[in-house]
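re: ur question from yesterday

yeah so i grabbed the chain u mentioned. its 275 aa long if i counted rite. heres the sequnce exactly as i have it in my notes:
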Amino acid sequence: MKLKKSALLRKNCFVAFTFFGLITWAQNNYTIEYEFIDSDKAILESKLIIQGNESVFVIKDNRESGMTYSEDGTPLSNVINDDLGLFMYSNEYFVYTRIPYPLSRKGTSYKYKANTMNWELTGETKKVGSFICQKASLDFHGRKYQVWFTTEIPVIFGPLNLNGLPGLIVEVIEENGFCSIKLLSFKKISDENLLKNARAFFQKKDIMEYDAYESFMNDFVIEYKIKKAQKISEFLKKHGGTADINLGKGQYHFVRYLIDIPKGTLRELEKIDLY
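ran it thru and got these structure tokens back, copy pasting raw so excuse formatting
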């Protein structure tokens, strides 16, 4: 598929960017650094490595797993992390993801086909730093993203596997607060070892297909909320009173560690009464 820049400026245009059709754009090698802000507002370093038709995105998180509190006892964050951490690898055939959740099973690794992502081009433009950027939105695997990208740097890989746009992603905001991402720097050189290690990790492991991931993670998250509801109920029966729990936006509290939310999980979570 050949894309003209004028076509990218059409307002409210849905564009199904075919990964195979745009793979020829990704011939240069790049190291692209981003600022990644998670749902607890923690600022983390992240890096996108592109080498030909492959990429790896890694988030550098040196925090230990567990809760952190302020001096007055107010919970500040709840970190789920391990030695491997969160990283993603893409090629022209598949997108692979590894998350350190749940810790009880030493994380989860899964893949899906690198086919079409239905980006919507809003027609909005703005200048971000020295780049003239266009706005695009994406509803994908249970999350909604707003993205600013520039065609001045013709790469098709993006952070968090937000692939398929014909240009460098400069900013990302996820609608329900999962993350926000901002470009820090880029250079035309790639970290071959980082890419090689990520490729080798997914080649050696038995990776779940996306349908299997959805089935497993849906059951795990729902069981987690049921157990949480039972503990709260038992506590209230024993001690009396009421519980005031801040769950954030809807049921997203229970899927905060998931990049890809299984279909129907949020609806099923709503059916479980915490009291």
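noticed a couple things. The two ends are 54 Å apart (CA to CA). also The chain has two domains: 7-206, 211-270.
anyway ttyl
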